[in-house]
Amino acid sequence: MTNAPLPNHPLRDFVDRHEKLFVLTGAGCSTNSGIPDYRDSNGNWKRTQPVNFQAFMSEEHTRQRYWARSLIGWRRFGQARPNDAHHALAKLEASGRCGMLLTQNVDRLHQSAGHRQVIDLHGRLDLVRCMGCGGKTPRDEFQHALGRANAEWLTLDAADAPDGDADLEHEDFSSFQVPACEACGGILKPDVVFFGENVPRDIVATGQDHLAQADAMLVVGSSLMVYSGFRFVQAAAQRKIPIAAVNLGRTRADNLLTFKVEERCEAALAFLL
Fold first, then answer.
1. pTM of the full predicted structure?
2. 106 a known binding residue?
3. What percent of the chain has a predicted confidence (pLDDT) above 90?
4. Hey, which residues are catalytic here?
5. Does the annotation list 98 as a binding residue?
6. C-alpha closest to that of 257 among 241, 238, 244, 270
7. Residue 248 annotated as part of some ligand binding site
8. What pLDDT score does 189 carry?
C-alpha cells in the first residue's frame, strides 16, 4: 500500500491548477529528518517554550544553559539530511510552479535538497552572530570552540529537542564556559530569531513581495501558531487567493484555508517525486 495521493487527490489538483505557488513550511517538514517539532496536533507546546531573546541577552546563566544544550544537540542536528518532503518541494520549484518558498525552519534542509528560492524567515542555525560587531562564524567552527572550553561536557548525551537543542536536564550549568566574540568580546548568539525577537523587516517585506505575485499559497508542516508565519496566510486571505495546507492537526488558520490535508508531509507530497 502506498501513501502517495491518488490521481484525483485535491492537493495534486491544487498544484496542477496554479502556476506560481507561494510555499510556507514549518517544523513538520523536517520531523522525518530526525528534528523534533514543537507542538502537538492541537497546536499546544509539547515542551517548555524555547529560550527568550531578552533572557538570553541579559542573563549569563540562560546563555550557559542554551549553549550547553546546543553543544550536545548540534552533534546530530548538524548531520540532519533532507527527507522526501524537502526533495518533493525542490522538484516543485524545478517544475516552475513554486515562485518562492518561505520557511520557518532554521535547518537549511530545503537548500540542501536543491531548493534555490528560499527565504529563511527565522534565520539559520548553521551560523553564529556576534551581537556586538555583527560578525558571523560557522556553527561547526563555534562547536569546536565550545568543545575546547568544555571538554568534560562532550561525554554527555541527551534526547534531541527542536532546532539543535537537547533535553539536558538536572545539570549545573554554572561551570559551562561560553566563548565571547574574538573580535570585540561581544555576546555570541545563533543567527536565528528567538522568541521575543523581531523578524528583520527586510525579510518580511521580501516575503510579502513574493506573496503578492503568487496565484495560490501552500502551507506545509506548520500549525501557524507563531504570528511571523500566520501573517502571510492572513495576507493571502486578504488577496483572496486559494490557500491549501498539509499538517497533522489544527492550524491557527483553519478558517482561512481552502482545504487541508492531514497527512505527514512526505506522504502528502509524494506525487511530486
1. 0.90
2. yes
3. 80
4. 122
5. no
6. 244
7. yes
8. 98
